[in-house]
Design a protein that fits this description.
By secondary structure, the protein is an alpha/beta fold. It is about 50% helix and about 10% strand. The strands form six sheets. A six-stranded mixed β-sheet has the order 9-8-10-14-17-18, sandwiched between helices. A five-stranded mixed β-sheet has the order 3-2-1-6-7. Strands 11-12-13 form a three-stranded antiparallel β-sheet. α8 runs antiparallel to α9 (about 150-165), α9 runs parallel beside α11 (about 190-210) and α11 packs parallel to α14.
Length: about 800
């Protein structure tokens, strides 16, 4: 049964049923059956690129095969283990295992087994740069396959030899070998291998200088691969994995269209196809528009039709134009796509679907010290390091840190702990100081370096702006919303905090929104249409208690939730008490209770911890739960998104979810986008999520959220409101009381670490169904009348509200609870 589910691409279901059988076989002591189960589990993990888990299962099988003296079985498992190590980029270890398997196959006179190992060994030596050795091994395999009449093996051998000839610069021979393999894979109806062979042929044609022929081969390959993708079905993790394997073809096609044929519009169409395809499939299951898109994806499903590449790429470009027009007149689109050799393609699209500009950004820029060059990704890494964006060690026990520092400084630990007790009352949701992101008790030790550190941070943000935005800034209109479509690691860019040559943040000029792909943005907007504006309800969660270690109470998250509830009620938005979860209420924010409240919700505000290790929100431990319980109290991304059968959280169509917690924009970065909490809520019917890029501070986050909601209840959209809230924190000194609870260490929340972590993902939504009269200008675009003399920004209208004057910055009055 597990093998059947695996064949259908339902990997999670396969694992589930095999594990059930494994429990029974373990109880009965049936080691042979246990070995089969472990083997299937290993295969399942291998298929979804979980190679370490696959190794764990295969090693269990190997022990059983050795105990049973099963030589043939041992050889096969050695080969499987070697495949895993090869995929992990450990060819030396893979070669050892392959040679062990080869020795057994030779003893058993298993010719087919020998051919398979020769092929795998060739791949390893090729990866090590030993191309001629690899060719010898591939030729040995080819001889055996021809001897046995094994056509699939023969086609694969031609493919491998074609790659070797390409590496050696023998392009004509390489092309001939790939054409042979394509013909044979067509006869075998092996579309996965056929798509890969078209990619190999296209790559070789590019190097030969035959750009048009290369594009023809690559588009045929994409048509075949997309048909394979649709055949996988609705299993999300399998679709994500299959799509990841297709990226070489998308990258090659974009590169040749841009750099050799100079067709940027068609290249943008390909780029749009190369993002978030699994998410698009799930979101568009019932959409007529997306049914049409799927037909375009598989327009060449009969891969012998030889459809002209211009038609296919042109249809993709036309879809991009339609989606751009649907975004509205006040939006410009920036799309990024990484090509090979660390090149980055960038396109700017107007709201009427016109391509304003495209370019390929240099892969490297000059470092701050002017002595070396850095890639864009290295600059991004330095930006995050400079801003003290900390990793998982942010959960270190604070008391242990206090005692350690006291011992080293010769101070009394109790006294030192008391000295910083006030500072701890508004600790980060990642347990760090709001000013420097070190432990609070370390602040005095680094205060002297703060100015230099801040200067370096600004320089890095300017450098990142220069690399990503400066090449296209002359085509960006002031006071329009930017819809940014990042690629891979660019999902981690704090776009709002990028600084231009005049010292202005990008958020000062633009409302900013991010989306995994243009299709996803339109599907999220379409989701709004499905919802009655009066349907759904509001869910508010603040500081769930009690929670598991090492997480601790977040007092400002509780105050934030109360403030949000109060602002909503003032705006005449009904907030049912049964959907409000605060520490001092009788309703505890357990996973079960919050899931029940989220079902059918139109708006959710969740102020809590998030666990970056498990991509989950940390909720209250249920009453009576013991430490031996296997069920986690946390809400994972898988539990949110459910599966193709509809399980999981199901929000009201068009919902907005504010995840006021740490790292909620994080996850596994793939061609699919970020596979994490934000994506899971989009799959659960949300049209927009507000999520964070790093460990955020409890106090400044509460302030940011209150400011955002003050603009939301005034009728502005979520992206507009978040922008104004960011500008308030970026330029407004925080009152000394009652918020400066850091023992005098905190003077402002101006640094980007306090406000730039949050971003809006998906569609443009708003809290109120209609914009109140008098705010139409603010709701239509960016805010204004925020007079910021220090940065040279022009005045804009802030959207109304009571105003207070502080150091030349006019902002709505904020009440901190």
């Amino acid at each position: 049964l597990g093998n059947c589910y695996t064949s259908l691409g339902q990997i999670s279901k396969a694992i589930e049923v095999v594990e059930q059988g494994l429990l029974i076989d373990t109880e009965l002591g049936k080691s042979a059956n246990m070995g089969k189960s472990y083997s299937v589990l290993g295969n399942c993990h291998y298929l979804v690129s979980q190679y370490s888990k696959a190794i764990e299962q295969y090693e269990r099988v190997l022990l059983i095969k050795e105990a049973m003296n099963d030589h043939a079985g041992k050889a096969k498992i050695c080969s499987n283990l070697a495949n895993c190590y090869d995929a992990l980029g450990q060819p030396a270890r893979a070669i050892q295992l392959y040679e062990q398997a080869l020795s057994i196959f030779q003893e058993l006179a298993d010719r087919l087994g020998q051919a398979g190992v020769f092929t795998s060994l060739g791949s390893c030596h090729d990866a090590l740069g030993e191309v001629k050795r690899a060719m010898t091994l591939y030729e040995k395999a080819l001889v055996i396959y021809e001897e046995l009449g094994n056509r699939e093996g023969k086609a694969r051998s031609w493919t491998n030899l074609g790659i070797c000839h390409y590496t050696l610069g023998l392009y004509d021979t390489s092309i001939q070998l790939h054409e042979w393999s394509i013909a044979l894979f067509k006869e075998l109806d092996d579309r996965t291998s056929l798509g890969a062979s078209y990619n190999n042929l296209g790559t070789t044609l590019i190097e030969q200088g035959s750009a048009t022929a290369a594009v023809r081969a690559l588009t045929r390959g994409l048509a075949v691969l997309q048909s394979v993708e649709h055949d996988v079905g609705s299993q999300d993790d399998r679709r994500v994995s299959v799509f990841e394997e297709q990226q070489k073809t998308y990258k090659h096609l974009q590169g040749v269209l841009l750099e050799q044929l100079h067709l940027p519009c068609l290249a943008l169409g390909v780029s749009a196809q190369a993002k978030a395809r699994a998410l698009t499939h799930r979101l568009g299951a019932d959409s007529e528009r997306d049914t049409a898109a799927k037909e375009r994806d598989t327009a060449a499903k009969d891969h012998t039709a030889n459809r002209p590449y211009e038609d296919l790429c042109e249809s993709w470009w036309q879809e991009v134009q339609q989606m751009a027009r649907a975004e509205g007149c006040s939006t410009q689109i920036i799309e990024f796509s990484f090509l090979f050799n660390d090149k980055l393609a960038v396109w700017v699209l107007s709201s009427n679907g016109e391509l304003l500009y495209s370019t390929i950004v240099p892969s490297k820029v000059e470092g701050l010290d002017e002595t070396n060059e850095l890639t864009i990704l290295q600059i991004l890494g330095e930006v995050r390091t400079s801003m003290k964006v900390r990793g998982r060690d942010a959960m270190v026990n604070h008391d242990t840190m206090v005692h350690s520092l006291a011992d080293s400084a010769g101070k009394d630990a109790v006294s030192l702990s008391t000295e910083h007790s006030a500072a701890m009352s508004s600790l980060s949701r990642g347990k760090n100081c709001r000013v420097c992101q070190y432990k609070v008790c370390q602040c005095a030790q680094i205060e002297a370096d703060a100015e230099a550190e801040l200067a370096r941070e600004k320089a890095l943000l300017q450098q990142l702006y220069a690399a990503l935005i400066a090449p296209i800034e002359m085509f960006l209109e002031d006071n329009v919303e930017l819809l940014i479509v990042p690629h891979l690691e660019l999902f981690e860019v704090p776009w709002a905090a990028l600084i231009d040559a005049n010292g202005r943040y990008l958020i000062e000029r633009h409302v900013i929104r991010v989306t995994p792909s243009l299709r996803v943005a339109r599907q999220a907007a379409d989701c709004l249409v499905k919802c009655d504006e009066h349907s759904g309800h509001v869910v508010v969660v603040g500081n769930p208690l009690p929670i598991r270690a090492p997480f601790r109470s977040l007092p400002y998250a509780a105050k934030e939730a109360k403030t949000v509830q109060g602002l909503l009620e003032i705006a005449k938005i009904e907030v049912l008490q049964k959907h409000v979860y605060l520490p001092d209420s009788n309703r505890k924010a357990t996973k079960a209770c919050v899931i029940e409240s989220l079902r059918g919700a139109k708006w959710a505000h969740l102020a809590c911890h998030a666990d970056i290790d498990s991509d989950s929100l940390v909720f209250a431990i249920p009453a009576g739960a013991n430490g031996d319980s296997k069920e986690s109290p946390d809400l994972s991304m898988h539990e949110v998104q459910g599966n193709e059968q509809g399980e999981g959280v199901r929000l009201c169509h068009g919902a907005t979810v504010v995840l006021s917690a740490c790292n909620t924009a994080k996850g596994a970065i793939k061609a699919e986008g970020v596979v994490g909490l934000s994506r899971s809520f989009l799959l659960a019917n949300a049209s927009a999520t507000v999520v964070s890029l790093w460990f955020v501070d409890d106090g400044s986050t509460a302030a940011l959220m209150e400011l955002m909601y003050k603009y939301l209840v005034d009728g502005l959209t979520v992206p507009q409101s978040l922008r104004l809230a960011m500008l308030c924190l970026a330029h407004l000194p925080v009152p000394e009381k009652p918020h400066d609870v850091s023992g005098g260490l905190l003077k402002t929340w101006k640094r980007p670490m306090h406000w730039a972590a949050f971003l809006v993902v998906g569609a443009t939504t708003r809290l109120l169904p209609n914009t109140p009269k008098g705010n139409t200008a603010a709701a239509a675009g960016c805010a204004a009348t925020l007079t910021i003399p220090s940065s040279g920004g022009e005045g804009v209208d802030d959207g109304g509200g009571t105003e207070v004057e502080t150091e030349g910055v006019t902002v709505p009055e904020v009440t901190f609870m």
